[in-house]
Amino acid sequence: MTEPLNVLGIAGSLRRASVNRGLLRAAVAEAPPSVRLSVFDLAPIPLYNGDVEAEGDPPSVAQLKRRILSSDALLLATPEYNRGMTGVMKNALDWASRPPEQALAGKPVAIVGATPGGFGTRASQFQARQILGNPGACVLPKPEVWVSNANDKFDEHGGLTDQATRGSLVDLLLALEAFARRLL
Prior knowledge:
The chain is of the alpha/beta class. Helix content is 40%, strand content 16%. It contains 6 helices and 6 strands. The protein has helices at 19-30, 50-54, 59-70, 87-97, 122-133, 163-183, and strands spanning 5-11, 35-40, 73-77, 108-114, 138-139, 145-147. Strands 1, 2, 3, 4, 5 and 6 form a 6-stranded parallel β-sheet that branches. Helix 5 links the parallel strand 4 and strand 5 (138-139). Helix 1 (19-30) packs across helix 6 (163-183). The two termini are 16 Å apart. The mean pLDDT is 96.
């Protein structure tokens, strides 16, 4: 049997009970045996600053880049704030795209997102696709998973309770696996 695909999940929210962190927890629980999914916490990542970078990546940034480089693919769970991606996610992508590692170059990426609103993070996912194109990440075109009305699909701790959304996560992980294996 082929080794499991090593996927790194990153949520663009820092709240413990975030529905986007909940999406990643559900993806870990629902991942098929052919996919090994781990999650990276962005809380320790400082704001990007070229002066700091010139002195060398902070340890948390170096760890982020190592984790991305050692993964076969990424699963980004991006919230939507004011019709855009969060500063937390954008900041992480900025750090990860920087030389010399350029950890996002050629990396297969799937994007998912949840929001209490009715549009299911479409705008933030669109922005993520635009941003990921510049460092040369390979973004999975389909399926697109936009979780609308998240208050009805998650409990008060950010746990996913909706079975249809769980099924969509499995479909997304299987599509990411097939996509990444073609690229690797």
